[in-house]
Amino acid sequence: MGGNHTQTKFILLGITESPRVQTPLFVLFLLIYTVTLVGNVGIITLVRVSPSLHTPMYFFLTHFAFIDICYSTVISPRMLADLLSEDKTISFTACMIQFFTFAFFGTVECHLLAMMAYDRHVAICQPLLYVTIISSRVCWQLVASSYLFSFLSVIICTWCVFGGSFCGPNHIDHFFCDEVPVLKLMCSDTHRSEMIIFALYTINVVGASVVILLSYISIIRTVLRMCSAQSRARAFHTCSSHLMAVSIFFGSGFFIYLQPSSSHRSLDKVASIFYTMVTPMLNPFIYSLRNKEVKGALIKWSRMVCKPQAQHYRRQ
To answer: Does the pTM exceed 0.85?
Structure first.
């Protein structure tokens, strides 16, 4: 992988070159990253300790939270260090690894969102067969297949990005090693690589979008046939958190990757910050604040933790 390169290192230009802005940005992004870790670890822990959340939906959610942690960790620590350092060089190998891991976790998250949509489809449209169709074995098979397919896709994508010749400038106009700014530095023709990468993104992102779209078309049809307004409201409410997560993730993803390379602008950095840092931070809040089951489990777990402490203080 990357056998034709002549550059041994790159220089990340980062978000901004203004020294005045870098320190405030460091504090802001450190806070965002900390909230991301606490929120997603909290979701995973809550699901593990709450028997009421041991369902396929929350099985997928724990993997979703784990991916968000990894997804953000690939980018945030390096970016935070660069904001406080004058040396922003990154080796060719480190750059390639960062791109691979970032693309891998992003692709897995894309597939997980599709699986969660399918889970909601079965739960609402075929409730009597839900336990049979979405069994524990099926859940593990779906998650494992998403990791495997994402790995194979990203291996090809990484070869397309780093497999050419880098003999010119080595300044990457971004805060991490992403596809578009790296391809701009390639000396050889990038048209073939861009077409392959575009095809892979289309297969993964558009493919997942089709699964989500078909799932929700079926859900809407089923909900509209329900006699009770309360039942319809409950069904839509169970999907609201997932729809918000889908809108944020795919909206920013389509903006960045499903446009011609000539259309990329400086605004892309803002969009990249949003989907690499802000989205992983928001997801735990989306799935907790708008979910009665999660809020109920959190309240119950808090009482269990606080009750022994209260009894201890009373004895004293």
So the answer is: yes
